Amino acid sequence: MTTSCRLYENPDFQEMAGGVLRPGGYRITEEGMRLAGISENAMILDVGCGLGSTLAHLEKVFDIRGIGIDVSKAILVRGRNLHPELDLREGAGEELEFQSLSFDGVLMECTLSLFRNQPEALHEAYCVLKHGGKLIVSDFYLRDPDDSLILQEKKRRVEVLEDKLAEIRSKAREQIIDPADENVHDHNHDNDCGSHDHDHDHDHDHGHENGSCGCSDGIVPIGSCINGAFLKEDLLKIVEETGYNVVSWMDKTRELGEFTAEIIMNYGSMEKFWESVLPEGQDASKHMEDMAKVKLGYFLLVAEKA
């Protein structure tokens, strides 16, 4: 079976996960919604919505309204067929095509790690959130930051993130608007969220669209989007420097273990799973050796737009 490493587009993986391609399924999502205090009729943006299964579930359980965006045209075609009642659009997290102050909550579940420009994705979410709106993120993180290999990567990542944050702040200062003016128009974001003309000739560097893995540079040379796993302190730093107040960070590594067990039950072993989903020519056993070099965890983060 030949496929890219975009696991979210793999039909076998989709079938196994029931359309919810992440550890914890709806349980972590619902916990995040409750921690965020999302109320009925709230407007929610799901960044990386996939088939739209999460939005459909949230509309039923929490009585919210929602819009989902995803970069995968193939996934969106399937999602619109499965959920014709939902508003599912093509779009990237680093370039949100919405007015400022549009949403009460933004979801990024197992998607933030896919972006090359993660600071820009967090900044874009900040801009489209209403004041007091909540960001809900669940994703992979690295649990062993004392490893020398990880420390080397940590130093490199911090430098990259700081450069990108500085670039975002510089653009915001150049295009700043009056924060008291609530009559903002499309992409004239409030406070430090300068206007965006979204000229597609610019190098936005969307990791999804790079033709290989579509994920952040990784600690080990593996063809998987797990490469984008965060260091906890680095993620919290960039979230806070973007302008959010962290409401909650919760370790959900147990749910990652349960998800792994489910994969093994369905495929027989993790090696057989990787043999099934890795692109042709990649060695599943070598992939597993690389994976063993890091200790992966899973987390739930809730933050509030200050």
Descriptive report:
The chain is α/β, with parallel strands linked by helices and 306 residues long. The protein has one domain (7-305): Rossmann fold, CATH 3.40.50.150. It has 10 helices and 8 strands. β1, α3 (53-62) and β2 form a beta-alpha-beta unit. The longest helix is centred in the middle third of the chain and has 27 residues, at 148-174.
Shape: globular
What is the CATH top level name?
Alpha Beta
Oligomer status: single chain
Number of beta strands:
8
Approximate strand percentage: 15-25%
**Largest beta sheet, briefly?**
8 strands, mixed
Ranges where pLDDT stays below 50 over 5 or more residues in a row are: 1-5, 176-189, 195-225
CATH topology: Rossmann fold
Gyration radius, in Å: 19 Å
How many angstroms does the end-to-end distance come to?
47 Å
Q: Helix segment count? A: 10
Brief summary:
With 306 residues, the protein is α/β, with parallel strands linked by helices.
Jot down its keywords.
single chain, 306 residues, alpha/beta, Rossmann fold, 10 helices, 39% helix, disordered N terminus
Summarize the SSE layout with pairings:
Elements: H1 11-17, H2 25-36, E1 43-47, H3 53-62, E2 65-70, H4 73-82, E3 87-90, E4 103-109, H5 118-128, E5 129-142, H6 148-174, E6 230-231, H7 232-242, E7 244-251, H8 253-267, H9 270-277, H10 284-291, E8 296-305
Parallel strand pairs: 1-2, 1-4, 2-3, 4-5, 5-6
Antiparallel strand pairs: 5-8, 7-8
Helix pairs in contact: 5-6, 6-7, 9-10
